[in-house]
Amino acid sequence: MKKILLLLLPLLSMISCGNSYTYNGFTVKSYDVHVSASDWQYTNLPSNNYFYCVVDMPEISSYVFDNGEVNVYRVFKKGTREAFKHILPDVLHCEEFSGSQPIRYTTTVDCIYGPGWIELNYRASDFAYEQNINIKPEAMDFTIVITTKN
Question: Rounded distance, CA 116 to CA 60, Å?
Answer without folding.
Answer: 5
